[in-house]
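Before relying on records like the one below, remember that each one covers exactly one chain. Contacts with other chains, cofactors or solvent are not represented anywhere in the record.
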Amino acid sequence: MATQLRVYTINRGQLQQFTEEWKHKILPLRMQHGFQVGGAWTIEATNQFVWLLSYGGPEAWEEKDQAYYSSAEREAMDPNPARLIARAEHYIVERVL
């Protein structure tokens, strides 16, 4: 199973709004597309939203992620929660414990 750590720096003053939109729009759609979310956290001191996203199906990570982003549901999100992200970092992580 591939797991990605996602660190989003959110525009100042919009962390709560992003979190709500993520919970109601992004999370359900990611799960519908076969992904699992291992947790999500906010860091108010730095305006960051951090989460773990995993996929363990037959498709490669890149294919599955691209299918999610190009889905009709994702493209139709209005407003798009990504508008609130100032910086996005994505890292594939490997389990140590």
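The beta strands are 2-10, 36-43, 48-55, 85-93.
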